[in-house]
């Protein structure tokens, strides 16, 4: 007995050391710690609870936060960088946990005399020290009290907002008949779908929770991984005409149910049951449910239970997201329609299934089915987010991206937590209808809703998309943080190393080093046109025309061989390089091609493209006029600030009396809009 007190501290020290060894791995949780310490989860949980009076998840989080505090005090790293280094997948969640641990946000560490007296002060004195500079400069006691009250109110509101985060875990099938699994899954899908319609909640996607179907992880650990404060657990079975459902809402911080109920209803009452569950969960969390949202929740998908049963059977293979799955789901959805010819959801899912089949097989053989079923879905329910998604995908299928937008935005209005809609909007605004602000907004939303996507590769590409959106809007450090996350989840990510090279250039502006890195990346796969054109460009920016010609020639040959018309905005650079090499006729063709591109260009970059054209032609006044027009645009990419200054074509413009002033206007406009964007995203709880 006398040795017991010495054993436990050694155990905690060892646990801390292992956590610190795996600090940056956000996936390192209780199970991983138990494995590393060669003990069972239950034994680990018991020993940590006995020694620290914390759960194992809380203990791990505390070690991460303590290291975060040390880094904040000892380094100049940003909060975002540190949150990543200490294993938090979300900066906002790191800030929340840090505030709960220390009583103030991480951004305030090191200001005033806080750093000197950190360990001696309690939470209240920390708060006062944090804001002592306000007290010194205050004009009156009234101003001081008002300022503190307003800050406290704002802080409380942000906590309330964060508390309304929820995940619906896969329900357990308690039926002796395993074939009833689809019905129990349907109960879970309905609970999830109804909660997603409430804008006052942030509801984690189905994809993210599916991985916990057979998990042994505890509530606190799952909640931490998903970055939510509440979890819904359920189990059900169908016995003849009876539905038995047991469901509970669990508060993650205390690991206790705050609402729960057991139901025994007839199958005919299934829709009323599903609606009641959603409303009671929302009430328990004190979420605001608008009349419009309540109308959507209470809407019955069909009055025909046979049709509904076929529909539920179809969802399993549909969500498998394979050709075989979609091919199996379609006839089941069709059976549902046979029993209810006005079943909007069934029509919508058939349309989407055909779209997915054509997208994967790339045969373009189902255009009529995609459009026809989407139209019928909208005819029978124009306020269904799934109906609207189906029609939007049809427009994307035929390349009418602008026509897809209103359908997607309306779908998000009816289902504010739709990760599918958010993902498509992020891609549209990133690639097809460029808008950097909206691209970043939806990329951030996707990370929130798909924070725990099923596999590391998917997660890697989600972070890649976010990193791309961040660098386009000038958030360099944040972009670097998230591209590193992308590579951590999948070091073989096809695009991440290329993007990281460009982000590092934006940070360091080392053009020689970047050129070498791009060449090395291209050598890994010489079919990559995206990298090849940038290798050529970087030689061109350095006026290294021999090497630029070498790579541009390969670029041109690859385009001609593939019959491609990609990167038309590069034609003027190719023309300049060919002209430098004495290939005047070929150069003239590229100058004409660029002129044609400028004429048909309808993007926000048209005036910038025209400025380059006029600068090349020696029409400097007209070039400045076009730059002045471009200075009035918003939401353009950060790259334009960098590469316009490097372009040799623009070099003569620098002697024009209006050039510096106009370029300063473009820069000021960009950073002003970035500040507004940051504020807007903060208000929406996205950063």
From TrEMBL:
The residue spans of each TPR repeat are 385-418, 460-493
| Sorted UniProt keywords | DNA-binding, TPR repeat, Transcription, Transcription regulation
| A Pfam family it matches | HTH_18
Q: Which GO terms describe its molecular function?
A: DNA-binding transcription factor activity; sequence-specific DNA binding
Family annotation (PROSITE patterns): HTH_ARAC_FAMILY_1, HTH_ARAC_FAMILY_2, TPR
Family matches, as Gene3D superfamilies:
Homeodomain-like (1.10.10.60), Tetratricopeptide repeat domain (1.25.40.10), TolB, N-terminal domain (3.40.50.10070)
Give yes or no: UniProt keyword Transmembrane. no
Q: Which SMART domains match?
A: HTH_ARAC (SM00342), TPR (SM00028)
| InterPro entries associated with the record | Homeodomain-like_sf, HTH_AraC, HTH_AraC-typ_CS, TPR-like_helical_dom_sf, TPR_rpt
Q: What is this protein called?
A: Helix-turn-helix domain-containing protein
Q: Where is the HTH araC/xylS-type domain?
A: 13-112
The answer to whether UniProt assigns keyword DNA-binding to this entry is yes
Q: Which organism is it from?
A: Pricia antarctica
């Amino acid at each position: 007995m006398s040795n017991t007190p010495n054993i436990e501290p050694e155990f905690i020290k060892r646990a801390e050391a292992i956590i610190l060894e795996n600090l940056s791995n956000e996936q390192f949780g209780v199970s991983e710690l138990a494995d590393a310490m060669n003990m069972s989860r239950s034994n680990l949980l018991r020993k940590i609870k006995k020694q620290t009076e914390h759960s194992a998840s809380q203990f791990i989080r505390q070690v991460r936060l303590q290291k975060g505090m040390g880094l904040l005090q000892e380094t100049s790293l940003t909060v975002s960088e540190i949150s990543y280094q200490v294993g938090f997948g979300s900066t906002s969640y790191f800030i929340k946990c840090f505030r709960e641990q220390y009583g103030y946000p991480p951004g305030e560490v090191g200001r005033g005399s806080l750093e000197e007296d950190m360990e001696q002060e309690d939470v209240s004195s920390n708060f006062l020290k944090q804001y002592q500079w306000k007290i010194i400069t205050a004009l009156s006691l009234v101003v001081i009290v008002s300022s503190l009250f307003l800050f406290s109110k704002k802080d409380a509101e942000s906590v309330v907002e964060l508390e309304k985060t929820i995940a619906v875990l896969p329900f357990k099938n308690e039926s002796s008949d395993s074939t009833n699994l689809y019905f129990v899954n349907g109960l879970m899908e309905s609970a999830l779908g109804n909660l997603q319609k409430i804008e006052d909640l942030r509801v984690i996607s189905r994809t993210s929770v599916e991985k916990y179907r057979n998990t042994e992880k505890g509530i606190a650990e799952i909640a931490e991984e998903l970055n939510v404060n509440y979890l819904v657990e359920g189990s059900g079975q169908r016995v003849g005409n009876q539905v038995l459902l047991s469901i509970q809402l669990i508060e993650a911080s205390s690991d206790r149910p705050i609402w729960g109920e057991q139901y025994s209803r007839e199958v005919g009452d299934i829709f009323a049951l599903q609606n009641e569950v959603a409303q009671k969960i929302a009430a328990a969390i004190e979420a605001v449910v608008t009349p419009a949202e309540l109308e959507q929740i209470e809407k019955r998908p069909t009055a025909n239970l046979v049709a509904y049963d076929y529909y539920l059977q179809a969802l399993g293979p549909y969500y498998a997201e394979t050709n075989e799955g979609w091919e199996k789901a379609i006839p089941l959805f069709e059976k549902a329609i046979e029993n209810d010819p006005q079943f909007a959801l069934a029509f919508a899912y058939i349309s989407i299934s055909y779209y997915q089949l054509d997208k994967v097989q790339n045969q373009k053989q189902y255009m009529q089915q995609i459009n026809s079923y989407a139209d019928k879905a909208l005819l029978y329910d124009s306020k269904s987010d799934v109906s609207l998604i189906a029609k939007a995908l049809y427009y994307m299928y035929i390349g009418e991206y602008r026509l897809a937008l209103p359908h997607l935005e309306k779908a998000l209005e009816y289902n504010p937590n739709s990760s599918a809609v958010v993902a498509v909007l992020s891609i549209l605004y990133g690639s097809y209808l460029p808008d950097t602000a909206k691209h970043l907004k939806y990329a951030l939303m996707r990370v929130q809703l798909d924070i725990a996507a099923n596999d590391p590769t998917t997660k890697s590409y989600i972070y890649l998309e976010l990193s791309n959106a961040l660098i386009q809007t000038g958030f360099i450090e944040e972009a670097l943080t998230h591209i590193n996350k992308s590579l951590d989840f999948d070091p073989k990510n096809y695009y991440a190393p290329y993007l990281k090279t460009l982000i590092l250039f934006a940070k360091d502006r080392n053009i020689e080093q970047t050129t070498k890195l791009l060449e090395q990346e291209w050598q890994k796969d010489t079919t990559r046109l995206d990298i090849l054109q940038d290798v050529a460009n970087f030689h061109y920016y350095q006026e290294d025309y021999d090497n630029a010609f070498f790579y541009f020639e390969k670029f041109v040959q690859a385009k001609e061989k593939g019959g491609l018309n990609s990167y038309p905005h590069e034609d003027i650079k190719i023309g300049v390089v060919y002209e430098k090499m004495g290939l005047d006729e070929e150069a003239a063709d590229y100058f004409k091609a660029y002129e044609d591109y400028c004429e048909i260009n309808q993007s926000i970059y048209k005036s910038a493209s025209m400025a380059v054209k006029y600068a090349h032609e020696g029409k400097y006044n007209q070039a400045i006029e076009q730059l002045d027009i471009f200075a009035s645009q918003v939401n353009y990419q950060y790259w334009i600030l960098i590469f316009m200054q490097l372009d040799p074509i623009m070099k003569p413009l620098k002697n024009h009396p209006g050039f510096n002033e106009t370029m300063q206007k473009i820069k000021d406009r960009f950073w002003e809009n970035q500040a507004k964007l940051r504020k807007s995203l903060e208000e929406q709880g996205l950063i």
